[in-house]
């Protein structure tokens, strides 16, 4: 295994960075103390560990277009069409994040009962109502359970799609869940994670949160060279080519031209 590609917007190769806070990496590794149950029957081929509003819709769209993988986006209901029709704000119990968290707490494989999928393109969940002062309804498995995800699925391709953090911050400020009064920033403030502390101060830059996570994931996979990791900038076609290559698809350039595009740019549907 190896870091397959890091594609930046300027076409240059990326480089690993140390997390700005040492506790971030320690928080991820602390989860390795949990017992590990038997792996899933369904083979998980791809797990996206990037942040929301950072290309998960584009990745989901690419997989549906270019592969035969059964892919989940934010819903782990087993019925993606029904989930999209009902709207995410009515499906918190069917979101992937709560399902994964429940499994980890109860010492089960992370994706057990979370749908019969080969690919998971968005793992996180935060309460769309904005009425969760405890932070208990917020879960980011790609932050707190990364070690467990890689332990159970060492053969999967782990992906992180990126964009300029200023652009990401603007998208987070604008976006609201359909039928929900809470902005995504409000929901972030209710999380209680290593770099999403409960009651996040309004003066804390969202770009800092994004950069912390990007750095932590890069460092983790730079140290775990036996794992497969792909990082790419969502704005450029080279990312589609790199994804196709990482997935072993024939004629990657043609696949990217047909299937890679930045979707959900108008912030209408869940990221």
Structure in words:
The chain has 271 residues and is α/β, with parallel strands linked by helices. Helices cover 36% and strands 9% of the residues. It contains 11 helices and 6 strands. Strands 1-6-5-2-4-3 form a 6-stranded parallel beta sheet, sandwiched between helices. Helix 2 (56-66) crosses helix 11. The longest helix has 18 residues, at 206-223. It is globular, with a radius of gyration of 17 Å. The two termini are 29 Å apart. The relative contact order is 0.22. Residues 13-40, 82-93 and 266-271 have low confidence and may be disordered.
Largest sheet: 6 strands, parallel
Rg (CA only): 17 Å
User: Percent helix among the residues?
Assistant: 25-40%
The shape, in one word, is globular
Number of strands: 6
């Amino acid at each position: 295994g190896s870091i397959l590609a890091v594609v930046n917007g300027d076409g240059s190769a990326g480089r690993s960075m140390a997390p700005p806070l040492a506790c971030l990496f320690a928080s991820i590794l602390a989860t390795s103390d949990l017992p590990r149950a038997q792996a899933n029957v369904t083979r998980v081929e791809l797990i996206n560990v990037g942040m929301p509003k950072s290309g998960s819709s584009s990745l989901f769209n690419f997989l549906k277009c270019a592969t035969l993988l059964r892919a989940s986006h934010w819903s782990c209901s087993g019925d993606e069409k029904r989930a999209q029709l009902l709207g995410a704000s009515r499906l918190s119990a069917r979101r992937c994040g709560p399902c994964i968290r429940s499994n980890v707490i109860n010492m089960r494989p992370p994706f057990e009962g979370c749908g019969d999928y080969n690919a998971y393109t968005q793992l996180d969940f935060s309460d769309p109502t904005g009425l969760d002062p405890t932070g208990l309804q917020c879960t980011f498995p790609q932050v707190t359970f990364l070690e467990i995800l890689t332990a159970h699925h060492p053969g999967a391709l782990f992906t992180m799609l990126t964009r300029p953090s200023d652009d990401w911050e603007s998208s987070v400020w604008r976006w609201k869940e359909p039928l929900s009064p809470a902005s995504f920033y409000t929901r972030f403030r209710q999380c209680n994670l290593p770099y999403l502390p409960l009651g996040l101060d309004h003066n804390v830059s969202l770009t800092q949160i994004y950069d912390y996570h990007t750095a932590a994931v890069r460092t983790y996979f730079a140290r775990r060279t036996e794992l497969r990791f792909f990082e790419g900038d969502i704005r450029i076609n080279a990312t589609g080519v790199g994804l196709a290559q990482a997935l072993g698809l024939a004629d990657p350039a043609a696949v990217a031209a047909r299937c890679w595009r930045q979707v959900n740019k108008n912030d209408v549907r869940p990221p």
